[in-house]
Amino acid sequence: MSLNKKYALFLGCVAPARYPGIEAATREVCKTIGIDLVELEGAGCCPAPGVIKSFDEDTWLAIAARNLALAEKQGADILTICNGCYGSLYDAAHVLNGNPERLRAVNKILSEVGLEYNGGTVVRHFAELLYKDITPENVKVNTKRSLEDMKVAVHYGCHFLKPSKIKDLDDPERPRILDDLVEATGAVNLNYRDKQMCCGAGGGVRSGNPELATEFTESKLKSMKEAGAQYIIDVCPFCHLQFDRTQKDVKGYDLPVIHLAQLLGLAFGMPANKLGLDIQEVPAKL
Fold first, then answer.
1. φ, ψ for residue 155 (rounded to 5)?
2. 285 in a structural domain
3. DSSP conformation letters of 223-277
4. Each residue's pLDDT tens digit, 214-264
């Protein structure tokens, strides 16, 4: 199938720098299911919503708008593979599309680098696009390798569903989007305590208070392990990093982290060594 729409792939910071297998999987999965990707030439940081926006909202908005303008110039919507990037760019588009005065102020800044934003860019998350436009049924159709031997715990993360009144993707307390996509691959999706809890890294906590971040992460790891999970499935490279790196420092856990794109790559027949899962702190031997 084809969506008859171009999507500018917004990679963000963590995936290309730390987990390139997520990018490789995303590109291959999109090719398989008919999502037409184009390169977002010259893209900058999203920028991180829990950091820059907290200190200077005007700066955050201008930086985000530059990315929106680059995609608009290419006649493409933006496709993100990271919750933080999704949160930042989606929120910026929402603010600018509903506030002509702020749009004029941002365009005054963008004019200094030869850009203008007209409010035409739609920001999509990889998982949300898969669920709404591709559907779990078509994921199942494209599955070549059943993952029924994998017992997994799904982690949604903070910025995927929230702010729920703006995004309105799913029930923020009992969402099904990721669960349904994961189950379409045949993987055994386990429920666990505090499923909607933060990974611990967001909002600058990983940098500013690493002990607290580790406490959050270990709490989730404990719940996942008690439920019988063998793998963690996420949709955010920063959550991915937090779960993966924290297991270096805490004892008793061996739960490889797999981004949804990597899971679908496995299901669609991609070789495991092309997904980068063997070079993580906690490698996935599949």
1. -120, 120
2. no
3. HHHHTT-SEEEES-HHHHHHHHHHHHHSSS----EEEHHHHHHHHTT--GGGTTG
4. 999 999 999 999 999 999 999 999 999 999 999 988 989 999 999 999 999
CA distance 255 to 241: 13
Q: What is the largest CA-CA distance in the chain?
A: 55
| Domain end position, chosen among 74, 93, 125 | 125
The Cα 206–Cα 201 span in angstroms is 4
The radius of gyration of the chain's CA atoms, rounded to the nearest angstrom, is: 18
| Burial (CB count <10 Å: 0-12, 13-18, 19+), residue 37 | middle
Tokens of 234: 């996420």
| CATH number of the domain bearing residue 224 | 3.40.50.11810
Residue type (1 letter), 286? L
> Of 48-57, 106-115, 143-152, 254-263, which gets the smallest average pLDDT?
48-57
Is residue 170 domain-shared with residue 271, that is, in the same domain?
Answer: yes
* Predicted local distance difference test score (pLDDT) of residue 1: 60
CATH number at residue 15: 1.20.1050.140
pTM of the predicted model as reported, rounded to 2 decimal places: 0.95
Q: Do 205 and 93 reside in the same domain of the chain?
A: no
Contacts (Cβ under 8 Å, ≥6 apart) of 87 = 49, 158, 159, 160, 162
Average pLDDT, the chain: 93
Closest alpha carbon to 85 in 271, 246, 236: 236
Residues with Cβ < 8 Å from 101, sequence gap 6 or more? none
Domain that holds residue 156: 143-279
The number of folded domains in the chain is 2
* Residues belonging to the chain: 286
